[in-house]
Amino acid sequence: MIGAIREAVATLPAMNPALALGAMVAMLGGKTGAKTLRSQRLLERECARANVPAPSLGLTARMLAASHAAGQLAWGPLGFGVRSVALKAFGVPLAAIARVHVAERIAEAVGIVAIALVALAVGGHLVAAAAVAVLGGVFLTLRGKPFAIASGWALVSSLADLLVLALASRAMHVDVGVVPLVLGFLGISVATCVPITPGGLGVQEAAITLAFATAGIPAPEALACALAYRCAHLVPLAIVGGPALVTAWKRNPRAEAAA
C-alpha cells in the first residue's frame, strides 16, 4: 500500500492543468454554489418563521465557504460550528440554525438517493425505476416549497460533485466509466458521513480507490485520481474559504445594534 501511495504521489506533476482547473471551478462554482443556493432557501424560510432578517446571498456564500474550509482543512464538525457561530452573530436564533442544519442533511440525502436510484434504473433494474417514480411523487408532495427547491439544489450539488470527480480523474489521464464514478461518489458520501478523520483524509481516498477497482483500474492510478479530487477541493477552499473563515469571526454590527 505504501508503494501505491508513493507511485500515486509521483504522478501528480503529470496532472493536466486545464482539467484540474476545470475540476476546481466545478467544485467552487457548481458544488459549493448549489449548496449556497440550497442553504439560502432554507435560511430564508427559518428566518421568516423567527421574524428576523435573513442573511444576504453573499453572506451565506462566505459563511458556507468558511464552513467548508474549516471542515476540509481541519475537521468536519468544526465547519458546522463556524457557520453556527457566524449565523448566531448575525442574529439568527440557535433553534432556527439547528433546523437549517437538519433540513440541509435531509435535502442532501434526497439528492444522493436520487442519483443512486437513477443509476440503478439506467442499469436496467425496473424496481429501481419504480423507486425513482415513488421518490418523485414524494418529492412533489412535500410541504413547503423552500425545502423542495433546496432539495433540487442539493441534487445539482451532487451532480457537480460527480463532475469534479470525473474531471479530476481525466486530469490524471485515467478514463473512468460512469458506473465507477457513481460508485465513487456514493462511496465518498457514505464513508464521510461520519467524520472519523480530519477532512475525511484516507477514508475518502479509500472509497474512490475501491470504487474504481470495479472497473479494473489499478490502485496507484485510482489513488492518483482520489488525490486530484482532494486537490480540487483544498486549493479553492484555501484561496477562497481561508479569508472567509477569518471574516466569519468578525462581529456583526447589525446584530449588536438589535441586541
What's the helix count? 11
List SSEs in N-to-C order: HHHHHHHHHHH
Strand content: under 5%
Given as residue ranges, the uncertain stretches (5+ residues, pLDDT < 50) are: 252-259
| Helix amount | over 70%
| Radius of gyration of CA atoms, rounded to a whole number | 19 Å
Based on DSSP secondary structure assignment, what is the total number of beta strands?
0
Determine the mean pLDDT.
82
Total number of domains: 1
Tell me the major beta sheet.
Answer: none
Structural class: mainly alpha
Approximate shape: globular
Distance between the termini: 56 Å
Give short descriptive properties of this protein.
259 residues; mainly alpha; 11 helices; 80% helix
Describe what you observe in this structure.
The structure is a single chain. With 259 residues, this protein is mainly alpha-helical. The protein has one domain. The chain is built from 11 helices and no strands. The chain is globular. 42% of the residues are buried.
Q: What's the topology here?
A:
Elements (H helix, E strand, L loop, with lengths): L1 H10 L5 H34 L6 H17 L2 H15 L3 H29 L3 H16 L3 H27 L6 H14 L11 H11 L5 H29 L5 H6 L1
Helix pairs in contact: 1-10, 2-3, 2-5, 2-7, 2-10, 3-4, 3-10, 4-5, 5-6, 5-7, 5-8, 7-8, 7-10, 8-9, 9-10
